[in-house]
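Changelog note: in this version the structure field was regenerated for every chain. One regenerated record is shown below for reference.
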Amino acid sequence: MGNWLIRWSPAFGIVILILFVWEALVEIRNIPNWLLPPPSSVAMTIYSDYSLLTRHTLVTLEEIVLGFLLALIVGVFFASAICLSNTVEKALYPFIIASQTVPIIVIAPMLLVWIGYGLAPKVIVVALISFFPIVVNMVDGMKAVDPDIQKLMYTLGGKKSQVFSKVMIPSSLPYLFSGLRVAIAMSVIGAVIGEWVGSSEGLGYLMIRSKPQFQTER
């Protein structure tokens, strides 16, 4: 417990300093709440609207978890197929890279038209936005394997499946975890975008509903 506090104390200190400066700036400059609410006002809103915020947070969290898991499963499958087959790599990988030029905000309304309202389109948006960092990082990890290690495995009688499972997969894990960190952050953005486009619940919907009423602290 003590080591944990020592490790994270600089981060907590920076957060507290930012909140203090934020609160002081709003009070000194007399900035109205609808423009920039102070942390104290945000905290009071969280306390007073706790049940409302919890309900919408759970909806968004469900979309994030399901979309992230879908992206992880599909991403690992595609990354494995790309690294095991040159044909698959040449056929799919350029399209995966090119797909990132299409903004996800453009795809979200189309999913609503094709699938309709509900959980599915938001989960797909989260999966699409999380898919790319998982695939690219895992492919990079598999391709970073030392060729000498692979040659040694083949020399010792190892099959391609054994080289894949015992060398390529373990070597790609640090790269995969790096991609997962990016994907988790992106999945939150994807869920909120999906709710902005069309939803009746979730944090994105709550933000859209609060905007006309200038409830910035919410």
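Spot check on this record: DSSP finds nine helices and no strands in the chain. The chain has two domains: 1-31, 38-210.
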